[in-house]
Design brief:
alpha/beta; Aldehyde Dehydrogenase, Chain A, domain 2; 13 helices; four-stranded parallel sheet; EC 1.2.1.41 (chains A, B); 39% helix; 422 residues; homodimer; 16 strands; NADP (chains A, B); seven-stranded parallel sheet; 21% strand; Aldehyde Dehydrogenase, Chain A, domain 1
């Protein structure tokens, strides 16, 4: 307990840097982001060559092509990262905003002003674009950041961070505003999440194990999220043809994402012929069904492949072309299933009955609840936030896609005329 | 890690109860609060007699009169608790409020709706009115709550909770909406803060040790706060006579509270005669000064008592008629001192120079920042929130006095017309 935290100095420097950053205005911070975009644009070659090193190491280590693709940068992807920075530049800056203000009876003028959180710690894996995503959202909102990326991307990330440092220096700002932990020792994650004297928020962007580790060990508030066991309930009043389109979209548009459909709940009254039609449509998309026993009788022989579902499958984030399928007797049964197996991420009801929709909306506890829409929309860009730093599935501070506002706190400010409390 | 949490069942029941409670409307919840007020009113005698038991045990155990006074209920105090319930009934219910809504280009109607957090865990000490404060704010916002009060108040608390249970039952609601952990085993605090499957937020209302314990051991987001090492900086342009009134108010109006002034920073240019005048005024209030060496030359012989300050005193929450006093050369030195020793609670500048005020406001990082006002205003009732569940000194979710809004989260709701993502 009295051992010094090996990241103490990094935390201290980050906090000091955050104070300096907080003195900049919106125009200066946008200028800094422009500078970073320019640096990336002027250094595509060095970035790609650093990325090649990471890819080679990954290949030598036997990484799967799918994972290697997440690692890969090319000119087009870098251009798209630069475009994302420009999007953030174009967003409204929440810092300094007055949330509400009032004059109290005693004459005090009281208001809440949006301020940066201070220092944010981000732990993430694989994709190098995340480095720039996080940095641009943090800088826009005047937050310093301590980054801890995956070791697979170390060369790419260090190149990106050195370009960010160049931009900071050219803007006469300390490079401690963006610090990167390059020591691969996993113990340092534990050190990072215990820097509560300096860091206001930890964002673990990674799998369940990372999230649980942070929840278990952090002394700093952690934003958990990004794990999505998402459901669609097809009510008996739903338009069945359109329901099939939604299901295809939610399952197959990009199966590896957290807002992908994993379990479909169908009202038993429409099992015939809905299940059969659906099965044919899913076959064309090469989806494999994991069915509860009572579904079998409704499945056509020439439809989608299927296996019997195991109980634990209902809590699984497939992230693949697999789909659990279960019949339910009514809305309540669907809600009970979602309460038992969901991860409070994204849940949808397909219905033409507004009463059923209202009940679903109020009783299903999730970051995003949909009526007659695909679960795939839970995303900062789709929701008009411009970008997102994470998708929160917890309830404190921010829920769902986290944009700029989620990177702010507020302070109460009161102006008096030498006012004392009676 | 795989041991069953001894509070598992309590957590589970609380979550189920929270789902039921979430189905009630504002009128029903206000009715429930009315019923609780009625029960208290009709049972003043049994409450007082339970309180007598606690007082007797406290006396036998040698509790100090000051602490016993915190424990004490009398008819007047119960009436005042009942009045507080009525205040909460009169407050606007934030649940169901639409925070923002927009129609996206693809036709999706997107909005955020305020919802209860679900289940709240509250750990607190001594004062029995806190039980009713927490319960009424939680019930108003449709949150279930698990209470863990101090063992000194156990008889009073159990009587209060049994009256709340009667009210719940008469309103046809499950009494699991308000559960009380009556087992005095301190290990159960550790169990409570690890019920992350069921509980959304932990509020530890107590001293630094309790706060640190929760930060260290909780797997649920914790709201830390309530520790206030508050400062006032008297700038050279301040109205010195009025400054003294503010200092007296901030230090002596109720010294045992967290928003009380603990360290006074005075611009050296006004040390003479300000320090001398102040010292005379503080003497009348029986304040003892803890001074840095350079202050001594300005102190009159017939002024307030003083001792030399120790370095660690600057980080101490005196909660008594003691006051640290230090000279600073300028605003920056004051800000540096506050950054080093403050607890981000309440900080004030007294100045007639708006530029200095602006710098102080933006550079001092605290829940509440005051210009020409006493720090004593940081309080839910004073800020017009009606009441408060705690005063947060962290930056996530809620900062400063936490009223009803701080007991809510939101969900994203999207209505489509069988809308798919392109």
């Amino acid at each position: 307990m009295f051992e010094e935290n090996p990241l103490e100095k990094i935390g201290q420097e980050a906090q000091k840097a955050s104070w300096k950053l907080a003195e900049t205005n919106t125009a200066q911070r946008n200028q800094l982001l422009e500078k970073i975009a320019d640096k990336l644009n002027a250094n595509i070659e060095p970035i790609l060559s650093a990325n090649q090193k990471d890819l080679q190491t990954a290949k030598d280590g036997g990484m799967s092509p799918a994972l290697m693709d997440r690692l890969l940068l090319n000119t087009e992807r870098i251009k798209s990262i630069i475009a994302d920075i420009k999007t953030v530049i174009g967003l409204n800056d929440p810092i300094g905003e007055i949330i509400d203000s009032k004059k109290l009876d005693n004459g005090l003028e009281l208001m809440r002003r949006r301020v940066p959180l201070g220092v944010i710690g981000a732990i993430y894996e694989a994709r190098p674009n995340v480095t720039i995503d996080i940095v641009s959202l943090c800088l826009k909102t005047a937050n310093a950041v301590i980054l801890r990326g995956g070791k697979e991307t170390i060369n790419t990330n260090l190149t990106l961070v050195s370009l960010i440092h160049q931009a900071l220096e050219e803007c006469k700002l300390t490079k401690n505003i963006v610090q990167y932990i390059d020591n691969p020792d996993r113990k340092l994650i534990n050190s990072l999440v215990r820097l509560d004297k300096y860091v206001s928020m930890i964002i673990p962007r990674g799998g369940q194990k990372l999230q649980e580790f942070c929840q278990e060990n952090a002394t700093i508030p952690v934003i958990t999220g990004g794990i999505g066991v998402c459901h669609i309930f097809v009510d008996k009043s739903a338009n069945q043809e359109k329901a099939i389109e939604i299901i295809i979209n939610a399952k197959t548009q990009r199966p590896s994402t957290c807002n992908t459909l994993e379990t479909l709940l169908v009202h038993k009254d429409i099992a015939d012929p809905f299940i059969s039609n659906l099965s044919h449509a899913l076959k064309r998309q090469q989806v494999t069904l994991h069915i509860s026993p009572e579904v079998k009788q409704f499945l056509p022989e020439d439809g989608a492949a299927f296996v019997e579902v195991k109980k634990e499958d209902y809590s699984k984030e497939w992230l693949s072309l697999d789909l659990n399928l279960k019949l339910v007797s009514n809305l309540n049964e669907a809600i009970d299933h979602i309460r038992a197996c969901g991860t409070q991420h994204s849940e949808a009801i397909l219905t033409n009955d507004t009463k059923q929709a209202d009940i679903f909306i109020s009783q299903v506890d999730a970051a995003a609840v949909y009526v007659n829409a695909s679960t795939r929309f839970t995303d900062g860009a789709q929701f008009g936030l411009g970008s997102e730093i994470a998708v929160s599935t917890q309830k404190l501070h921010a829920r769902g896609p986290m944009g700029l506002e989620a990177l702010t706190s507020y302070k109460w400010i009161a102006y008096g005329d030498y006012t004392t409390r009676a």
